[in-house]
Design a protein that fits this description.
Largest sheet: none
Order of helices and strands: H
Strand content: under 5%
Distance between the termini: 44 Å
Number of domains: 1
Structural class: mainly alpha
Number of strands: 0
Number of helices: 1
Protein name: K+-transporting ATPase, KdpF subunit
Oligomer: single chain
Keywords: Membrane, Transmembrane, Transmembrane helix
Length: 37
């Protein structure tokens, strides 16, 4: 089952990880700097 998904891990994880990091940074900034949002 894992060998089936291996080719997808590179591209999909990179995109998912990038989106997750951006959202996390946005949420942290919104919580720490509420006057800017």
């Amino acid at each position: 089952m894992t060998s089936h998904l291996m080719p997808l891990i590179g591209a999909e994880n990179a995109v998912g990880l990038g989106v997750a990091v951006v959202l996390l940074v946005f949420v942290v900034c919104a919580l720490l700097l509420p006057e800017r949002f």
